[in-house]
Amino acid sequence: MQLSNEIISASADAVKNGGQHLFWSENINESLEISIGQFGQTTPVLAQESDAGLELISGHARLEVMKRLSNPVLVRVVTDASPLDKGLLYLADNTHKEIDDGMRLAALNYFAPLTDSSYLRQTILPMIGIKSKSKNAKLLMRWLDLPNNWQHHMQAGRIPMAAGDVLLKMDKADRDAIEPLFDSFSWSRSNAVNMLTWLFEAGKMQGKTVAQVMADSGITATLGQGLSPKDAIARLTAVAKETRYPHLNSLQASFDKAARDITTGTSWRMVQPNNFETGGTELTVSVKNVEQLEKATRELETIGSSPQWKTIWSLGEQND
């Protein structure tokens, strides 16, 4: 491959704009269109001469804007570029882009058939902002083993990269069962990983498929209730956690009742901080002046004499 120092002017319509190496081609940024309209094209596109004419290697947005303006385009010519070279040049010419995990996966999908996993790790991953020996490198590489429909969900921002490990533990039937969870909602990292882990582990514990777990717990029905994304995700994750940890849910209900009995009528609030690993609890109060502090102190004496503390202490023992 050779990247010429010569810049030529060509008809924008004469440059073929397409190819799998343009893996981050996107809608035209309005600010780019305004900039080119005011100052012209300040950076040439990269294109290769071929029997069919000039073939774009990088500069999709710039080329499209010049077409709209019916202006010729400035081209820096590349010769003898292989498919691997095209992808590398495209990456090098787009280092200014802010990229997400979905875009990183799109890049890996382009390079994967052209080279080996070692080259992907050592050369491509650093070019897309991932350290070759990092945890994220391992996570992203594993996404190449997932079906295209799941890669599409990740690229669309509906499921985070961190969920890949759980998806790979599931068989196709289980993945098909949970896919409706991601058809309409975009999940945070923690919610997605927790949701999938709880469903998968509940299925293993109960000897059921994930589809059966979802149906029996009411998750499948919840998906059809037309809830807002925020409400739906909150409800779905709560049900999944209850399904995975039924005993923990029972402990929480007992704790909540005892906590209400202890703190009702006071300014104190009580929470269980560690999933009942111990029988401990946290008491908090908010005060703004000395009078409120004195009142809270008196309330604390009353709280300390409640018989419900025996219930609080016993809950940790039940979870041993």
Describe it for me?
The chain is an alpha/beta fold and 320 residues long. The protein folds into 4 domains: 2-93, Conserved hypothetical protein from pyrococcus furiosus pfu- 392566-001, ParB domain (Alpha-Beta Complex); 98-145; 162-244, no CATH class; 250-318, no CATH class. Helix content is 53%, strand content 11%. It is built from 16 helices and 7 strands. It has helices at residues 30-39, 60-68, 83-93, 101-111, 117-127, 135-142, 148-155, 164-169, 172-178, 189-206, 210-217, 219-223, 229-244, 246-263, 290-304, 309-318, and strands at residues 2-10, 15-16, 45-50, 53-58, 73-79, 269-271, 282-284. A 5-stranded mixed beta sheet has the order 1-5-3-4-2. A two-stranded antiparallel sheet has the order 6-7. β3 (45-50) and β4 form a beta hairpin. The chain is elongated and about 90 Å long.
Give short descriptive properties of this protein.
Conserved hypothetical protein from pyrococcus furiosus pfu- 392566-001, ParB domain; 7 strands; elongated; single chain; alpha/beta; 320 residues; 5-stranded mixed sheet
Characterize this entry briefly:
The chain has 320 residues and is an alpha/beta fold.
Helix content: 40-55%
The CATH H-level homologous superfamily of the largest domain: Conserved hypothetical protein from pyrococcus furiosus pfu- 392566-001, ParB domain
- Mean pLDDT across all residues, rounded? 93
SSE string, helices as H and strands as E: EEHEEHEHHHHHHHHHHHHEEHH
Low-confidence stretches: none
Indicate the CATH topology of the largest domain: Conserved hypothetical protein from pyrococcus furiosus pfu- 392566-001, ParB domain
Question: Under the CATH scheme, which class of the largest domain?
Answer: Alpha Beta
Indicate the overall shape.
elongated
The count of domains is 4
Q: Rounded to an integer, what's the Rg over CA atoms?
A: 29 Å
| Strand content range | 5-15%
Largest sheet: 5 strands, mixed
Please report the number of helical segments.
Answer: 16
